[in-house]
Queue: 2 jobs
Job 1
Amino acid sequence: MPAGKENKTLGLLALAGLTPYEEKEGEEYMNDAQMDHFRQLLSTWRAQLREEVDRTVHHMQDEAANFPDPVDRAAQEEEFSIELRARDRERKLIKKIEKTLKRMEDDDFGYCDSCGIEIGVRRLEARPTADMCIDCKTLAEIKEKQLQG
């Protein structure tokens, strides 16, 4: 795994207060232990994102002021705009996490939506909401670039 991906994986796990899942020799893919690990990871991640949304709402309510100076007012509006864009991305991520948790309930988690093969524990550690294997995702991105170009 490239260093950037590994750091992102460790960052997400550290954020959730978890250690990476250690696969055991001959272990069945997406067994109860793996499902519990990813369910805990996703649930903790979702809770932390929701806390951040609440914190932003309170911050904006507490810090909202009607500055007489147009430059101060513009700076505050720009700060709030940046925060709202970040929260919008997090809101979309929360929806994706909830979709992934639903897939877990339906016993559809960990398998590629496109070809049906195993996504893999390491890929899911890096991107727990992944719904495609790396090969299908790569092909989808290539097709997307071709359509844009």
Job 2
Amino acid sequence: MYKISVVIRVYNEQKHIREVLESLKRQTYSNFEVIILDSESTDDTLKIASEYDCRIEKIKKKDFNYSYASNVCVELSQGDIICFLSGHSVPVKDTFLEDINSMFQNSLIGAGYGDVIALPDGSLTEKAFNTLGYLKNKIFRRNNKIKLENKIHPGIFSCSNAYARRELLLQHPFALELGDGGEDVEVAYRIIEDGFYIASNSELLVMHSHGKKFLDFCKEYKSWNKMYNNVLDYIECC
């Protein structure tokens, strides 16, 4: 039975942070801790978080990038498994953490990630895109909910809903050079190189979206592909 550290990087997340923490409060699994890492929020994020059983830590906003914040979270954690959620990633099932623990009983799995559907206030574009992706995985994996992956691709190990063995994250910290995005893909590559699988688990579902409408969503989608190519260039150079 692993101890799970749920780490949540936040900046002005008052809109959904209560939903995230309420979901964690309802979990059937009890061997976990919650760490909130705040980057100088100016809204009620920390006021809301203080109402829950979680540890609140802070970094300077000027120091923030995704890699730096994630590495700080790993260092602060005491769990065997690190679960990365954003301040607007709401686990859907009360067995979310229990299912993560069960998945990591397979010693060949070094890390994993789950599916995403849009929040109720997400845009129609996000709802359509994410729901179709989730349903596709449900259909193709109806006999086996977990797919073991040994090659990287865009979206693998996305840290809005991802989990990894802490010992591997200490060996392979997130690259500061990729702190604007894509750092999670690079870590997935290192874990695979160590001989582990990355597990894609359609049962580990969160609600997560940014409210981006069609044109903005298309721009973001293009930026994901560019980000992925930057990661490939970084891996080749390093």
